[in-house]
Amino acid sequence: MTRPVKARIDTRALRQNYRLACGITPGSRNIAVVKANAYGHGAAIIARALDDLVPAFAVAGVDEALELRDAGIRKPVLLLEGPITPDEVGIAQEQDFWLMVCCREQVEMVCRADIRSPVTVWLKIDSGMHRLGVTENEFHTSLAALSESANTLPGMTLCTHLADAHNVSGQETAAQVGFFQRLVSGLDNPLSIANSAGILHWPATHGAWNRPGLMLYGASPFPQPQENAERLEPVMTLQSAVIGVRKIDAGESVGYGSRWIAQRPSTIATVGVGYGDGYPRSAVDGTPVLLNGSRARLAGSVSMDMITVDVTDLDEVNIGDPVELWGKSLLLGEVAQYAGTISHELVTRVSVRVPRVRYSG
Ligand SMILES: *Cc1c(COP(=O)(O)O)cnc(C)c1O
Fold first, then answer.
1. Which of 30, 99, 211, 222 has most ligand 1 atoms within 8 Å of CB, for mutation?
2. pTM for this prediction
3. What is the mean pLDDT of residues 26-30?
4. For 350, which of 39, 45, 108, 278 could close a Cys bridge (C-beta 3.0–4.6 Å)?
5. Which DSSP symbol is given to 198?
6. What is the DSSP code string of 261-297?
């Protein structure tokens, strides 16, 4: 018997979320970000399902981009961290990978590369996140060096990344956009600023190109309800099944470390999913799960292959009953809060042993 855990991937919802991004940003082209195995959803499944809609894909590095080529994807692929070694400039030229150039060293790498035809380059500017991107002082020399190089195609996109766009009441996003706009004013290059949160909430960040990631998968980047985000449809449903049921007395404990102790005679269902599948070990007692469509609560610490759930208040629970860990009826963002993390991390950590099963809902 195979374990009952699987991640069901709704490609119709995925396409709907992509179209939502396009509808919110009618003046932009939206690059689908499929790094980290498409946020854990399966890069090949996601890229194939979006291939006819998108102008390009984005991933972290060359290995992920080559994986897309192996999956039959021919669209351009933007490498968000730029070339890591000089030979990657040549690979980019051969494979039609676009290079996000993020520092002076990468500017030199591109300019010095011995390639037969020019590559598409984006120049990334650090507007306040202080992670990647050239500084204000380096910007004009970097732009000049790349523009004059025979190795780059004209019309370079100028780009930056937002650090706080999920915080809709903060001042940081406006400050970043203001800084970026001042730096690029007078230039007629295409611009790219927005991630999912920018697309959903900050019209001033919508550029020639946007870079939606999380929203494609139907999760909200915001900790609070947000109007556009309400229209997203979850793409992944992580599901499993009950593999054991037992009754325990008040005062008896459940699981490693005896963390959960029954306050009353209780019924405990054991479910076939654990941190070895990517269900977060940091999930606290009381984290919701859906069992037979009804809410029940995690009772005891998460094991590698199993969790234990207090089903005392549910009607009848049997081995084989379906369990949803997150998905259409139990939002990822809620589970993430109980696990002290963010939606991005939960889905990205769904492990290789969990089969991704695509369907069109
Ligand atoms: C991951 C990433 C994105 C997508 O971000 P989301 O918040 O998931 O939409 C966009 N741009 C860059 C540079 C990234 O690294």
1. 211
2. 0.96
3. 98
4. 278
5. H
6. E-SSSEEEEEES--GGGT--TTPPTT-EEEETTEEEE
